[in-house]
Design brief:
This protein is mainly alpha-helical and about 400 residues long. Helices cover about 70% and strands about 0% of the residues.
């Protein structure tokens, strides 16, 4: 690790501490020193992971950075490279100019968003009435969450980016900043297609009065601006806008890829094409039902009800869809932690979701199964049951208050 990487790594830790300070959770000497110690430990754990190379890095990310390096850096954005969307490619192109290991740079980018992920989760808990202890607790719980450490610092994946931005969108909506909220969700979608598992929560926030219909026009305008630099560098406009449609084939044709989805239970399917179509329809029906329940009860939608619905969407949609991969429940991992801190009686949802996701992580990182993936699928069914119960309980409580 050279000097530049070391300095950037330390600056990220300082940035995390500054966020805590600015958030007003470091009011007592005990919290000041405890936070410093915990941050040192959280970043030390990540430092031990930085040298690890996965096949994803060797076969894809490393090759993409090298492509930019050999083809003029940002100028190479005019050409098709990789199967990630344009915003992430901006960073890979930037890394091709920097005289440092691209492995470290890729992981430092994800670690930076680990910090923003923890900050956004803390902000949501604050808006839900969390105490200083709860806010500090969730910040470090997210930073130490196994899937968060493994995803970015070890695996070199970027799921913390799109989920951090999605949570920031929810936080800013609750803070009555609709334009910032919509911009954050646009960025989330811009980085990764899996943001669609969380995006329907915007409709629920609209039902709560956090958005006006005009604010939804921010999304397409911001998305065009987001990809415009690549277009100006020579990338065809329509190819750039419709990139996700051309990438759908890259997720694979198998019904399940080490994912605790419904196909972890029903893995021995004879007619995979039919099963895939039925699963897609089921996921859309599920999403529609969650939104319909919220709309019918929109006058008594509490913030906790919104959060329960967000968990249902982030877990339920990928649970029902085919072709899901091991990391596709990352948003659910974080939202269940937020739910656990907001409603402690439902705290089992967080370890259940972690357990399910870690089975997939173990399968990829160790190249063998620790337990059958069906165990994770049943764990997520329990998460959905608990979250659904909380949603109906909150709606019923809202009805009683109204009466």
């Amino acid at each position: 690790m050279n000097i530049l990487i070391s300095v950037l790594f330390c600056l990220e830790a300082v940035f995390a501490y500054w966020l805590l300070y600015r958030s007003g959770v470091l009011e007592k000497s005990f919290s000041i020193y405890l936070s410093a110690v915990l941050l040192a430990l959280a970043f030390s754990l990540r430092a031990f992971c930085l040298n690890y190379e996965t096949l994803d890095y060797q076969n894809f990310l490393k090759q993409w950075v090298e492509f930019f390096r050999q083809n003029g850096g940002f100028a190479a954005l005019s050409q098709p490279v990789g199967n990630y969307n344009i915003p992430y490619l901006y960073f890979l192109a930037l890394f091709s100019y920097i005289p440092a290991s691209d492995l470290y740079l890729i992981k430092l980018l994800s670690i930076f968003f680990d910090v923003l992920l923890a900050w956004a989760a803390m902000g949501i808990v604050e808006k839900l009435g969390g105490s200083l202890g709860q806010r500090l607790g969730i910040f470090f719980t997210v930073l130490f969450l196994p899937t968060v450490i493994l995803n970015g610092a070890l695996w070199g994946q970027c799921d913390s980016i799109y989920v951090a931005l999605a949570l920031m969108s929810i936080y800013w909506a609750l803070d009555d900043r609709p334009v910032l909220s919509m911009l954050a969700m646009t960025l989330s979608f811009g980085f990764k297609l899996q943001a669609v598992f969380v995006m329907p929560v915007l409709a629920i926030l609209w039902m709560q009065g956090k958005f006006k219909l005009r604010h939804f026009f921010v999304f397409p305008i911001a998305y065009v601006v987001l990809v415009l630099p690549a277009v100006l560098l020579g990338r065809p406009f329509m190819d750039t806008i419709t990139l996700y449609f051309s990438q759908t084939g890259s997720i694979g044709s198998g019904l399940n890829y080490n994912s605790p989805s419904i196909f972890g239970i029903f893995w021995n399917v004879q007619n995979e094409a039919l099963a895939s179509k039925l699963a897609i329809v089921s996921a859309f029906v599920f999403m529609f039902l969650v939104l319909l329940i919220c709309y019918v009860n929109r006058s008594r939608l509490s913030c906790r009800a919104m959060l329960a619905a967000a968990v249902l969407l982030a877990v339920g949609i990928p649970f029902l869809l085919p072709h899901m991969h091991d990391r596709y429940f990352f948003a659910g991992d974080i939202l269940t932690v937020v739910l656990a801190f907001a409603c402690w009686k439902y705290s089992p949802v967080a370890p259940l979701c972690q357990f399910a996701s870690l089975l997939g992580y173990h399968a990829y990182l160790k190249m063998r199964y620790l337990l059958p993936m069906s165990y994770g699928s049943w764990a997520l069914i329990l998460v959905l049951i608990l979250s659904g119960y909380l949603l109906f309980r909150e709606l019923e409580a809202g009805k009683m208050k109204k009466v």
